[in-house]
Amino acid sequence: MTRAGQREVVVCALADLPPGERREAEGAAGHGVTVFNVGGELHALLNHCPHRGGPLCRGRVGPLARSTRVGFWTFEREGEILRCPYHNWEFDLKTGRALYDDRLRARRYPVTVRGGQVTIHLSRPNRRFPAPK
């Protein structure tokens, strides 16, 4: 435990998570939390798609595909886009944002490396409602 209401979960050794790979902490935060190594940067997402509840983090990771005309594609940001395996909704691994609907985001968690161990920080949700005015 760290600060009040915050838990830490060790996911793996940093050596076991090279760039382009992912490791899941099954059951963390209810659905599991997966840490992705995107070009040396670590990003943790809840394994729950905000679109329809699919196992988001088990989807394919690839580039952002763009098209300016029929039959012509360019690919950018290789390894930064996560596609949900249920309905192919795409999410930015660095921000959690859905590419086609700014209202949807995958829940993200802070990640640190201490003593060579990759650790995610899970906060207890605040279930209090604001006091009426």
Number of helices: 0
What is the domain total for the residues?
1
What order do the SSEs take from the amino end to the carboxyl end, as H and E? EEEEEEEEEE
Global Rg: 16 Å
Helix content: under 10%
Structural class: mainly beta
CATH superfamily membership: Rieske [2Fe-2S] iron-sulphur domain
Strand content: over 45%
Count of β-strands: 10
| Unreliable stretches | 126-133
Kindly identify the CATH topology: Rieske Iron-sulfur Protein
Which whole number gives the mean pLDDT?
85
Describe this protein's structure.
By secondary structure, this protein is mainly β. It is 0% helix and 47% strand. The protein has a single domain, classed as 3-layer Sandwich (Rieske Iron-sulfur Protein), CATH 2.102.10. It contains no helices and ten strands. It starts with 5 loop residues before the first strand and ends in a 10-residue tail after the last strand. The C terminus is likely disordered.
Salient structural properties:
three-stranded antiparallel sheet; mainly beta; Rieske Iron-sulfur Protein; single chain; globular; 47% strand; 10 strands; 133 residues; four-stranded antiparallel sheet
What's the helix and strand layout?
Layout: E1 6-13, E2 22-25, E3 33-38, E4 41-46, E5 60-69, E6 72-83, E7 90-92, E8 108-109, E9 111-114, E10 117-123
Antiparallel strand pairs: 1-10, 2-3, 3-4, 4-8, 5-6, 6-7, 9-10
The gist of it:
The chain has strands at residues 6-13, 22-25, 33-38, 41-46, 60-69, 72-83, 90-92, 108-109, 111-114, 117-123. With 133 residues, it is mostly beta strands.
